[in-house]
Amino acid sequence: MTKQELAVDLADIRAAAVAIDGEVIATPTLSIPALDECAGAKLYLKLENLQHTGSFKARGAANKLRTLSPQARTAGIVACSAGNHAQGVAFFAQRLGIPATIVMPMATPFTKVERTQALGAKVVLHGENLSDSAEHARTLEQEEDLTFIHPYDDPLIVAGQGTAGLELIEAAAGLEAVIVPIGGGGLIAGIATALKALQPQIEIIGVEAALYPSMYQAIHHQPPTSHGVTLAEGIAVKSPGRVTRPIIEALVDDIVLVGEPSLETAVQTMADAARMVVEGAGAAGLAAVLDAPERFAGRRIGLLVSGGNIDRRLLASVLLRGLAREGRMIRVRVLIDDRPGALAQITARIAEAGGDIIEIIHQRLFFDLSVKQADLDIVIETRGGSHADEIIARLQQAGYPTRRLSFRTAEDTPHEQRATTP
Question: Is residue 422 included in any domain, yes or no?
């Protein structure tokens, strides 16, 4: 398929921009010096996490729903989604007075279900995954004469998402590259269409979660392997779009894959350096930059921050794990004699070293311990790696056998390999 035969062109995106003007937020594009320093590049963040319902999906939904006939609006619509598309569709369906049914997987977090219902949509929980939900949504489409609103495989959806590209290029002149997350491909297909028409030399780079490389594998004629649990659930798509794939093949210069540790680091960096809450998919562009600093060093890079809908409990886990990776929170095991005052002596030593105790657990039931001994598992907040080493050294110098534990496992060493307390 040639560029002339692609399903969406610049005129479509400009028409979408006019149609949804005032309906969606023209989100800001910001450069944050602290984040530039982390990345070693000049980054321009297109903040779609500030969009209606917290993601770019509002753009495509607004552009699509406005085209429905009066009969279709009366009959209602159906969509399938695990979160962002659901809320985007529900938001504009409610605004336009269109009955909306959203099919979501059974395991969808309660918060996402509640947010979608709060926007006036009927939520149907069906299936173990999004593919099951999509199949059921198609069944409802036929049985109830509803209009199916696809999350990405629709020219009107693609054109709506592409309006973010028009805003980005206007706000940040002289960009050398733009990095966009890829799930089904609607966002990058729209943005690539807009930017390549306006600035052909600009480099468009897609980024997928390594566990879900569906578009990369499709374009490179590789067998599909998408599976698993990813922090970037917003781009965890097993089947790339039939509308979006030809656009991506024609206009996107490269697709890179980022692993789960990189996604975690990027979410944490956005919170620490940019003071910004984003979801895993929204941080994927930054993950790609941090993974390949030599590729982007000193360049002017646009990043599509596609969404900010991350579960608060999950965000807390990411941030705490980040502290552990940096050595600012450590877990140690200390062998003590199980006698009055022993715990007080340990806590005093840690306090003298400047550590802040978060949690202590007594382990008295290990069979490789003397009945008169106990292990203390202690979680300590520190100032960083060298301070953590200092705390452990002080405990050891005071005669308390101490070792650092991974936060992943608390497996004990054999009793005969450890010294006893004095």
Answer: no
Q: How far apart are CA 63 and CA 75, in angstroms?
A: 19
Q: Which of 46-55, 101-110, 336-345 has the highest mean pLDDT?
A: 46-55
Quick one: tokens of 365?
């039931």
Span 318-360, pLDDT tens digits: 998 888 888 889 999 999 888 888 889 999 999 999 999 999 9
| Residues 127 and 225 occupy one common structural domain | no
From CA 69, how far away is CA 83, in angstroms rounded?
A: 26
- Which pTM does this prediction carry? 0.86
Q: Which residues pair with 336 in a beta bridge?
A: 374
CATH number for the domain including 39? Answer: 3.40.50.1100
| Number of residues written out for the chain | 422
- CA neighbours closer than 13 Å in the CB half-sphere of residue 301: 27
Residue pLDDT, tens place only, 393-419: 999 999 999 999 876 543 444 333 333
> What is the number of other CB atoms lying within 10 angstroms of the CB of residue 381?
15
Residue with tokens 């596609």: 306
Please list, in sequence order, all residues whose beta carbon lies within 8 angstroms of the beta carbon of residue 22, skipping any fewer than 6 positions away: none
| Residue 127: C-alpha distances to residues 102, 103, 105, 135, 222 (Å) | 13, 9, 5, 9, 27
Q: Give the span between the Cα atoms of 33 and 294, in whole angstroms.
A: 19
Residues 151-176: tens digit of each pLDDT: 999 999 999 999 999 999 999 999 99
What is the rounded CA–CA span in Å between residue 324 and residue 405?
11
Q: Verify that 61 and 137 share a domain, yes or no.
A: yes
Within this chain, do residues 94 and 69 fall inside the same structural domain, yes or no?
Answer: yes
The reply to whether 237 and 280 lie within a common domain is yes
Could you list the residue range(s) of the whole structural domain that residue 118 is in?
57-148
Provide the domain count of the chain: 3
Alpha helices by DSSP H, 24-82: 33-39, 57-65, 70-75
